[in-house]
Specification:
about 425 residues; alpha/beta; Nucleotidyltransferase, domain 5; 15 helices; about 15% strand; globular
Length: about 425
Amino acid sequence: MADQPPPDTYRDADTRKSDTSGKVADFRYKRSHQHRRPNGRDGRDRGHNSEGNRKRSPTGNADGVAHSHAAKKSPHGGPDAYAALDLGTNNCRLLIARPSGRDFTVIDAFSRVVKLGEDLATTGRLSDDAMDRTLRALSICADKLKRRKVRLARSVATEACRRAANGPAFIDRVRDQTGLVLDVITAEEEARLAVLGCHILLEDGDGPAIIFDIGGGSTELVLVEPGGKIPRIVDWQSVPWGVVSLTDTVGRGESGKEARIDRYARMRDIVTTSFAPFAKRIAAAAQRDDIRLLGTSGTVTTLASLHLELPQYDRKAVDGLIVPSAAMRDISTSLSSMSPAERSGLPCIGDDRADLVVAGCAILESIMDLWPAHRLGVADRGIREGILRSLMAAERHSERSLRALHQLRGENAVRGKADRT
């Protein structure tokens, strides 16, 4: 799959001096206040304090982002800004970043629950209300791209737009009303971008690993093995079950505890059946003792927050955390029997996620069944970060190719001059 993205309207934005305030709209990227962990330790201490709460910092700082080296300069004097927009079934997310060595520094971000895929599982279409909500969010993203003078961007849409009968018409409407050109990517590319965006948080080891992304309308599972800077993809599967599609399909009948337990069991059966072909293919690898597991999704970050007993979501405490799988199962089982009101009252869940987190738990438990790793890595990064890395890598490759071409031309010119003399 090519890394070179299709053009966006705002890719060739003017080169006047940009806003360099660094203010971000996505609360997960704000600098959080210190908080106290349940064990009494400061939440900023994320060294190897216990097997269940080991925090990796692969780039040597708390943000998980490298801060050093010279970045390519734009005509207005600062490093070029790149952007990645991910329109999913439930969320609209944007990251704007500048290169920092071989990594990047986030300078702006946006995230909003738009519920684009609401009722899609039962109607096969995007509803008018869902499209209107999404267009309002995308207009904010388009404005940020202009204000930040983004030079290169890629905007992608995933399962909701892949499945909806009126998906193509919605893509056209987005282009006409916001100027954004959404690239409806395949499930395979969605899986690849998720791996590219979060693989750096994989627990150290030589064994195979599963990296998974529980979305709103689909879930991607990727079997990888160590090899080079990026793990080698061995096998993968995408199933049409995410937190929105699974919830809409099974329904929201949660009138009593028994009904909630039965509903959760039906969710588990549906997902397990869909995973069966993949589970069969990877069964031999799953028997190894050194298998690893890494998840990127709102489900795993929410459950990790509950595991840490955080009073509010803190990306720095969660991104890169390694949690015992048994703890995640216990939390999933507990949430599945709670009423919606009880779930919404828990920190880090709230009303937006209270009716969807149970479906996420069912998907997560099914994944842990087919890949019984003792620990689960948690990533608050994924497709957007994968897009940014792809864009920047493509730029570096183009620059190297251009330098090589100039060098070759220079050598040919010198050779030609020598031949004439």
